[in-house]
Amino acid sequence: MYTHHFALREPPFSIAPNPRYLYLSPKHREALAHLLYGISVGGGFVVLSGEVGMGKTTLCRALLDQLPEDVELALIFNPRLNSRELLAGICDELHIAYQGPKASLKQLIDALNRYLLDAHAAGRRIIVLIDEAQNLRFDVLEQIRLLTNLETDQAKLLQIILVGQPELNQVLDRPNLRQLSQRITARFHLLPLSFEETRDYLVHRLRVGGVQDPIFLGAAVKAIYRRSKGIPRLINLIADRSLLGAYALGRHRVDGAVAKRAGYELLGKGVRAQKRWPKVFVAMVLIALFGLLIVVAREPQGIFFEKLKGLLKEYPVTMKGNVEPPRSPSQLQEEGPAGGTAAPDASGDPPFVEGDEFADWMATAGQGRHEALMSLLMAWHFTLPAASSDPCASLKSLELRCQPLQIAWQQLLQLNLPAALEFTQADGSRRFVVLSGVSDGQPVFSDGQGTKTFHVAPVLSRWTGRATVVWKPPVKAFASLKPMMSSPLVLWIRQQLGVIGSPDHAVIYDEDLVQKVKAFQRELELRPDGIIGVLTLMGIEGHGYDADVPRLIPTYPKAQGG
């Protein structure tokens, strides 16, 4: 109705989850990075929560556009299902054949498991995204957890993304769901937009709709922010009604009066009445303080002030007089350290670079695979002739080996060995960069000129999950080592893990060493089966004490007798 009046191509404030209109505020950008990180880790659960209308569904639509080509996604938008209906819905989304309504729960699981194994063999990954997940019943959540047990020796076959309202976190925190909670690899809670983000959000939606000039005056933005509390869906509703009101009045700008009227018509008096609550809350705090004065009036002055200080620590008062509730450790971890980017310190850590600069840095510092492997060899203090056509083939004479991996991020870090990582640029081309270290949990990359540290989220949003690690096998001929086998390799493993065996059994892979290896495999997030394969052996090397082995985080010999 008003699009022609404002020269818009289409209504810009529709509440439909159109990813073209997605405004990536810092909060939404971080949420998207967490989702991509969780997918790159592979297996387990990823959780995205937020209030009603925060743009979670739109964010998930945008996620679909950024999924790697080897990922298949099953979308479940109606979670009010029993276990059988949910499994049938997943099979339908993935086009898995089953016996219709007659199929039992076991038949559906078997069909899904066969499909997952075939997909894994073909190099594809399967993800199930469940929206409105706070409505899932306990027995259905337990069935979903059991689905993540479908796995091979090296990888989980299925990953679950749960999207829901804040109640979802309360559900997952129940003691009877602790097994599921322990499998969550990434979690993010979306918060409302700030005033500045609300202003930018309005401008962004108008530009996508076809208008470059601002239509909402400053007073209108303030009115919309006050009434919407920074919730995108409410911003859309009020902004849409404001444009309609300005059109009815024949105006080409929305002022504060029109925006206020639109908010009042949509949200009624209930939102206005909420404005009294901060004052009521402050009044209640003052009454409580007055009561405290009466109770402790007879106590020594020092004790009174200690109690008052403790109360103010628990409920700090901001400069504007708003009372701030205490924050949980998880909230403090989400917010990160105050002051934003950390400056270089005296520890010698590499200079820190803002995360959003990673793509620009990679475009200039990234290399082809051949050059990256040559740079990786420099970490091992080896330099091959520039004319070497295949660096990996040349390593045999150096007793080194190239190990290509499709691996989760945490597992790669646990190996503790430098690696050449493959990244995707915006134009679809591939670039390789050498991961040379880890500083405070953030990746450190080498570019030939020095090292730079980046936030992990933007790095993972472009990483393909592929890496090439150079390592040094302790023996030339190597096969998987199983319990009670005898091999000279056992002696080397004992030395690296600090497990002393009797002289008569030093080369026997006995039960004591098996238990030590299983514990080590759990630390590396590998299958704790006690069988020593390539990844386990690489991890042992990465955490051992051979001074000639370069590592992401240096290891140091244990003290004698420790």
What's the short story on this structure?
It contains 21 helices and eleven strands. With 562 residues, the chain is an alpha/beta fold.
In words, what does this structure look like?
The protein is α/β, with parallel strands linked by helices and 562 residues long. It folds into 5 domains: 26-190, P-loop containing nucleotide triphosphate hydrolases (Rossmann fold, 3-Layer(aba) Sandwich); 195-274, Orthogonal Bundle (Helicase, Ruva Protein, domain 3), CATH 1.10.8; 276-324, no CATH class; 355-471, Cathepsin B, Chain A (Alpha-Beta Complex); 473-562, PGBD-like superfamily/PGBD (Muramoyl-pentapeptide Carboxypeptidase, domain 1, Orthogonal Bundle), CATH 1.10.101.10. It is 43% helix and 13% strand. The protein contains 21 helices and 11 strands. The protein has helices spanning 26-41, 56-66, 83-93, 105-121, 138-147, 167-172, 178-181, 195-209, 218-228, 232-248, 256-274, 276-295, 301-314, 329-335, 358-365, 369-379, 409-415, 456-462, 488-497, 511-523, 534-542, and strands at 44-50, 71-76, 125-130, 158-164, 184-190, 401-406, 419-424, 430-439, 442-446, 451-453, 463-471. It has a 6-stranded antiparallel β-sheet with strand order 6-11-7-8-9-10, with helices on both faces. The chain is globular. It starts with 25 loop residues before the first helix and ends in a 20-residue tail after the last helix. Mean pLDDT is 78; it is low at 270-276, 311-355 and 557-562.
